[in-house]
Amino acid sequence: MPETEGIPCLLMRGGTSKGALFLASDLPADPGERDDVLLRLMGSPDPRQVDGLGGAHPLTSKVAVIARSQDAGADIDYLFLQVGVDTALVTSRQNCGNILAAVGPFAVERGLVPASDGHTDVRIRMVNTGSVATARFATPGGVVDYDGGPASGGAVAIDGVPGTAAAIRLNFEATAGSSTGALFPTGKVLDHAEGVDMTCVDNGMPSVLMRAADLGLTGEEAPADLEADERLAQRLAGLRLTAADLMGMGDVSGATVPKLVLLAPPRAGGSIATRSFLPVRVHTSIGVLGALTVAAGVLAEGSVGHDLATLPLPGEPLRVEHPSGHFDVEVAVDSTTDGYTVTRSTALRTARKIFDGRVFPRPRL
């Protein structure tokens, strides 16, 4: 299809992120050509992304590429791509659990999965890691209900998003999908590097957990204040490279993972307080896979966050506090002779269809 005719696109909010969702068949099959098109569609590189769909922040510069799955254990294949804002970067080195919340409804909207009258379950293979999650959402009369009407069980609110919407329950199989191959990639729940204790953990999002206090912080700082601290940014950049090497991730200087998460005791009745780096910008809340990973990390005895946390009683969710409020997740971690194993990872999100139409890439620079 010529670019002048536009490319079919569904712009959606998923959780606390926003992204452009495409059928794989509507984009070039060659990854290099696809990424070139996506940069021009999103308006990157430009800190304002004024000439494209992007919203001038990593949380609003995301893309999902979706197709029917060739895997017998899944309905849909979902490739997540993080598009740089002020850099010409498109990377598949991480998953996104927030945009994942929009993938099931998209599959119904595009006719990839038939909807049931009531609720629909969509099994989604996350191509980035090969892991599988099931999204369950309301489809009264075979139509996706984004608002959460009475027939769908009502609406819910998630911190970081105005208003309410219909609930989307995400159930991850066994673990949320470690892209590094292990829950604790270094083989230990506690490492020490450059004078700082850290827990390197990956329950779907490779992350480095550190105590905010060890970096001279309270863990209550506003994202803008953390981003303005140039000395902190330099320290964290060095720690991230060191931790990535310990995790066997190689050179991550041009990658968005691992994420860095600063931990502090909870202040608002939750389990643990967090400030999450993306890895430079600071998350205004916390990602789905980031929250699941933090939860798995603090549940493990001896980890950097275990003694900071107020752990929930059995059967209760673990409440992760973040700059916009909190995020409740259900995570279970079992200790075995071989280490720790995640046996349950579940999160509740919402999504909304914003715009359905054709998007036109800007000319090549």
UniProtKB/TrEMBL annotation:
Pfam families reported for this sequence: PrpF
Keywords: Isomerase
Domain of life where this protein originates: Bacteria
Family, similarity comment: Belongs to the PrpF family.
UniProt-recorded name of the protein: FldA protein
Native species: Arthrobacter liuii
Gene this protein is translated from: fldA
